[in-house]
């Protein structure tokens, strides 16, 4: 199947290094300390942050820093077919772990000892790139809650199809089972904090091509969020 | 102000927008350029020597913000005031909270902070009013003083190793009854000299807790503990645990009159309107809003409607122009 | 996250400082240099498809089993591969029995990504009857001792187990050719799995000091490190997967350097695994030959060719024991009728 036409346009009319349209909105969940809705094209994710608040499980309390918990789930109606198990399956557990470790690296946890920060992320519409959208939404929600952070974390995904690096894959391009990589960076410090790659064997030079595309996109997200 | 969920029609929207714009123009011009987001660098004159306050950190010699907010400068101190954050306690703050747990020799109180606050048994006056050492029997009778989900008023004593400690030694602190507890964002309540307000014309008490919990209730005289104890003992004989009285006479004494309840609701709605609009909650504003609503003969539930909110905004504009002219 | 804090072993401030300062001068506590792996030993069990890997103090066992199942609806011609991890509480005081915790799930998924998404195991050859019966390969990884860097060790255990696993041969029979007959190993020699390449996981640990990177962290170094990155690549230089799940941020140049180092290490480890598997295979072949008496008149076409191959391999490797080779020669002669 041809993902990049000879004129250089993708299936949805974008150029290879062009991102989908981004929309972000703060304050979606009234009850939460901070919340955000983040849209990347058709992928829509809502994140809510509660905290810092009292640790619910006293045995897990850390005396010198805040405990960060994260839960990722996909709504039943987010994908085309109704999902049987929206959370608790291995993919959700892994993504919860990834998001938690990414956010933990940038939250200044030592300023809030003995407390707990809960991050809940839910995917409302899944059209590829859900992991990146979740991280962007979580960053916005944390900023909305006034939780001190070292830096914002911005994230984007990219892939490689028809010998072209493509930025911000949607579901069709994602399910082509080509290599894809999700990168999360701290823009101010210019450091990479999240890097996940799934591929079917690709040599290293192509990785750098994708990676450059992601850096451009994360700068763009950063300006939009600010 | 968060995106209001009020159903506004077109004229109301226009009026609201205009009023908000006027408010913005009235606000101090200096601060309009000082808003920062996370990881923005703060412009600082380095030769002066700078003290980094809350919400800032250093990176490669320049100062960057760690929260989204407004930069404030006081002499050499530079800090970032977060727009929305949990309550930040200071010693001596008056706060209102809810008991979540009765623990050995202490109560744990929820106060919208990153941890639950602790009220020690020794920081609380005993029911019989005598100053004495707390014995084991006192510990067993803690529930007769406060139980779970009671609302109490206390003062911040300080930070200890295991958290925030409160004290409630004076008459004006203690359990709050016959009223409503409201939660507003903590930044809407500024620290003033007085947090306990008694509105005589209505007969209600308003307590503005610095943590954003506001109590509006029937006025209770701060009586001597000994007298209260005797009165409550005689009442207990006629009351069962639900508080339903068998004696009709006593019932009239104990329950709140309807008029006062109405005023309590009006004041509570006034606070709710202020919280939706994001205006600072002070007693003067509350009184003004209550007067406004009774002068217009609005029903209490209409106070939460969109028309009233727009009116309140316009009133606020008037008020601020007046204060600005004076000041 | 479910682990109870009371069960974790605590780290002293002095130990942490020592490890960090030692790394500044490129020294590690166990005497390795920053980019050295620990000693790797791969042992095999009695059954086909079981492997035991020891890397320093880390001890992991891998078991491979296969079962005939119905294929997925959208992939009727392919078998399936699934990985299950078991973090046994005897390995580490912080492991709890019961449902796998987050780290167990992560380990399973990273190994799974390396093997399945990179098409290391040929799933199409696992198909017996398209749309009806396929082989489902199940890999169970048991952590016996957590000495740090469980991911690499578990990956190696999985690969070693896959390479020595033999699945039973089956043929189609019955009236309409739709029935599947599974031949027991005495009847027909079981077949190995087809592995296109070996994806090797290489884990890097990032520390709070700038540019402090170490490969193959021990348990102590894992407690000190700020972030971790696991790259899965094969000896051909292809990157199969990268997993850097948050933690300390690092510069891009450091990541590219790590990838280059990882490809070198992957080649080394592939060599080691292949050597261990080959020696095990010869060992079993010798044992098998001792097992088969020369008078079993079975019509085993598959085994015949297998024996011929083994005979060739034995001759090539110059088997040290002369007697068994004589037996082999006699046996092939008897079968050649």
Automatic annotation (TrEMBL), chain A:
MF term (GO), any: transferase activity
InterPro entries, sorted: ExoRNase_PH_dom1, ExoRNase_PH_dom2, PNPase/RNase_PH_dom_sf, Ribosomal_Su5_D2-typ_SF, RNase_PH
Domain Exoribonuclease phosphorolytic: 18-148, 151-196
CDD domains given in the database record: RNase_PH_RRP41
Annotated Gene Ontology cellular component terms: cytoplasmic exosome (RNase complex); nuclear exosome (RNase complex); nucleolus
GO process terms (BP): nuclear mRNA surveillance; poly(A)-dependent snoRNA 3'-end processing; rRNA catabolic process; U4 snRNA 3'-end processing
Keyword Cytoplasm in annotation: yes
Keywords: Cytoplasm, Exosome, Transferase
Subcellular localization: Cytoplasm; Nucleus, Nucleolus
Protein name: Polyribonucleotide nucleotidyltransferase
UniProtKB/TrEMBL annotation, chain B:
GO terms for MF: RNA binding
Main location: nucleus
Keywords (A to Z) from UniProt: Exosome, Nucleus, RNA-binding, rRNA processing
Compartment(s) where it occurs, according to its Swiss-Prot or TrEMBL record: Nucleus
Pfam families for this protein: KH_6 (PF15985), S1_RRP4 (PF21266)
InterPro entries per UniProt: Exosome_RNA_bind1/RRP40/RRP4 (IPR026699), KH_dom_type_1 (IPR004088), KH_dom_type_1_sf (IPR036612), NA-bd_OB-fold (IPR012340), S1_domain (IPR003029), S1_RRP4 (IPR048565)
Cellular compartments per GO CC: cytoplasmic exosome (RNase complex); nuclear exosome (RNase complex)
PANTHER family linked to this entry: EXOSOME COMPLEX COMPONENT RRP4 (PTHR21321:SF4), PNAS-3 RELATED (PTHR21321)
Name under which the protein is recorded: Exosome complex RNA-binding protein 1/RRP40/RRP
Organism: Parasponia andersonii (Sponia andersonii)
UniProtKB/TrEMBL annotation, chain C:
Region (Disordered): 311-337
Coiled-coil features, chain-numbered ranges: none
Transmembrane segment boundaries: none
GO MF, any single term: mRNA 3'-UTR AU-rich region binding
Record-annotated Exoribonuclease phosphorolytic domain positions: 37-168, 197-263
Cellular component terms per the entry's GO annotation: cytoplasmic exosome (RNase complex); nuclear exosome (RNase complex)
Major location (coarse): cytoplasm
One GO BP annotation of this record: nuclear mRNA surveillance
Keywords carried by this UniProt record: Cytoplasm, Nucleus, RNA-binding, Transferase
Family as reported in the entry's similarity comment: Belongs to the RNase PH family.
PANTHER family with a match to the protein in the record: EXOSOME COMPLEX COMPONENT RRP45, EXOSOME COMPLEX EXONUCLEASE RIBOSOMAL RNA PROCESSING PROTEIN
Name of this chain's protein: Protein ECERIFERUM 7
Organism: Parasponia andersonii (Sponia andersonii)
């Amino acid at each position: 199947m041809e993902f990049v036409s000879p004129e250089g346009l993708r299936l949805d009319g974008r150029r290879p290094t062009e991102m989908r349209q981004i929309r972000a909105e703060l304050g979606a969940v009234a009850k939460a300390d901070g919340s955000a809705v983040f849209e990347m094209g058709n992928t829509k994710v809502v994140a809510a942050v509660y905290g810092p608040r009292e640790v619910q499980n006293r045995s897990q309390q850390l005396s010198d820093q805040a405990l960060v918990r994260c839960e990722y789930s996909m709504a039943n109606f987010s994908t085309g077919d109704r999902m049987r198990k929206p959370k608790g399956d291995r993919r959700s557990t892994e993504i919860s772990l990834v998001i938690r470790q990414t956010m933990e690296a940038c939250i200044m946890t030592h300023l809030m000892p003995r407390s707990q920060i809960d991050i809940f992320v839910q995917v409302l519409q899944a059209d590829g790139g859900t992991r990146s959208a979740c991280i962007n939404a979580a960053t916005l929600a944390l900023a909305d809650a006034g939780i001190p952070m070292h830096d914002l974390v911005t994230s984007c995904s990219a892939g490689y199809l028809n010998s072209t690096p493509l930025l911000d894959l949607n579901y069709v391009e994602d399910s082509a089972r080509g290599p894809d990589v999700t990168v999360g960076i701290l823009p101010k410090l210019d450091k990479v904090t999240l890097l996940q790659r799934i591929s079917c064997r690709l040599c290293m030079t192509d990785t750098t091509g994708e990676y450059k595309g992601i850096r451009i996109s994360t700068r763009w997200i950063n300006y939009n969020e600010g | 102000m968060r995106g209001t969920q009020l159903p506004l029609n077109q004229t109301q929207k226009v009026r609201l927008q205009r009023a908000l714009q006027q408010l913005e123009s009235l606000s101090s011009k200096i601060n309009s350029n000082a808003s920062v987001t996370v990881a923005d660098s703060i412009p600082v004159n380095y030769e002066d020597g700078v003290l980094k306050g809350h919400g800032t950190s250093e990176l490669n010699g320049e100062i960057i913000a760690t929260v989204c907010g407004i930069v404030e400068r006081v002499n050499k101190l530079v800090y970032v005031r977060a727009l929305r954050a949990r309550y930040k306690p200071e010693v001596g703050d008056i706060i209102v909270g809810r008991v979540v747990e009765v623990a050995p020799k202490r109560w744990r109180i929820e106060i919208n902070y990153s941890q639950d606050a602790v009220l020690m048994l020794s920081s609380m006056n005993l029911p019989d009013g005598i100053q004495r050492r707390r014995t084991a029997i006192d510990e067993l009778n803690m529930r007769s003083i406060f139980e779970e989900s009671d609302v109490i008023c206390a003062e911040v004593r300080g930070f200890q190793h295991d958290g925030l400690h409160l004290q409630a030694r004076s008459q004006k602190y203690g359990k709050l009854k016959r009223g409503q507890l409201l939660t507003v964002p903590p930044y809407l309540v500024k620290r003033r000299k007085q947090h306990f307000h008694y509105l005589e014309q209505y007969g209600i008490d308003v307590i503005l807790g610095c943590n954003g919990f506001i109590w509006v209730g029937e006025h209770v005289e701060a009586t001597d503990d000994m007298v209260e104890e005797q009165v409550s003992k005689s009442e207990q004989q006629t009351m069962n645990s639900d508080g339903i009285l068998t004696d009709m006479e006593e019932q009239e004494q104990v329950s709140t009159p309807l008029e006062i309840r109405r005023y309590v609701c009006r004041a509570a709605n006034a606070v709710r309107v202020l919280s939706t609009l994001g205006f600072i909650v002070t007693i003067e504003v509350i009184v003004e809003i209550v007067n406004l609503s009774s002068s217009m003969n609005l029903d209490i539930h209409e106070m939460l409607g969109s028309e009233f909110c727009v009116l309140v905004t316009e009133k606020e504009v008037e008020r601020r122009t007046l204060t600005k002219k004076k000041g | 996250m479910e682990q109870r804090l009371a069960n974790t072993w605590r780290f002293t401030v002095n130990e942490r400082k020592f490890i960090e300062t030692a790394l500044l001068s490129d020294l590690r506590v166990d005497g390795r240099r920053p980019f050295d792996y620990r000693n790797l030993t791969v042992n095999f069990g009695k059954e086909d498809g079981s492997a035991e890997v020891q890397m320093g103090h880390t001890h992991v066992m891998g078991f491979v089993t296969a079962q005939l199942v119905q294929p997925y609806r959208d992939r009727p011609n392919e078998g399936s591969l699934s990985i299950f991890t078991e973090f046994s509480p005897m390995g580490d005081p912080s492991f709890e029995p019961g449902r796998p915790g987050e780290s167990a799930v992560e380990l399973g998924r990273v190994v799974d990504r390396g093997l399945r998404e990179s098409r290391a195991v040929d799933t199409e050859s696992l198909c017996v009857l398209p749309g009806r019966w396929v082989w489902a390969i199940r890999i169970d990884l048991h952590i016996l001792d957590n000495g740090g860097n469980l991911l690499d060790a578990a990956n190696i255990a999985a690969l070693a187990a896959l390479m020595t696993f033999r699945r039973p041969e089956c043929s189609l029979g019955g009236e309409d050719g739709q029935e599947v007959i599974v031949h027991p190993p005495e009847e027909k020699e079981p077949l190995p799995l087809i592995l296109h390449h070996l994806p090797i996981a290489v884990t890097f640990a990032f520390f709070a000091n700038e540019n402090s990177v170490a490969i193959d962290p021990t348990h102590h170094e894992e407690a000190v490190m700020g972030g971790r990155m696991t790259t899965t690549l094969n000896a051909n230089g292809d990157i199969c997967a990268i997993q850097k799940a948050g933690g300390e941020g690092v510069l891009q140049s450091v990541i590219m350097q790590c990838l280059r180092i990882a490809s070198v290490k992957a080649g080394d480890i592939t060599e080691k695994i292949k050597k261990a598997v080959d020696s095990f295979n010869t060992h079993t072949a010798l044992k098998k030959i001792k097992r088969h008496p020369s008078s079993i008149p079975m019509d085993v076409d598959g085994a015949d060719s297998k024996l011929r191959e083994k005979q060739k391999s034995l001759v090539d490797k110059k088997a040290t024991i002369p007697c068994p080779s004589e037996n082999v020669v006699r046996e092939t002669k008897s079968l050649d009728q």
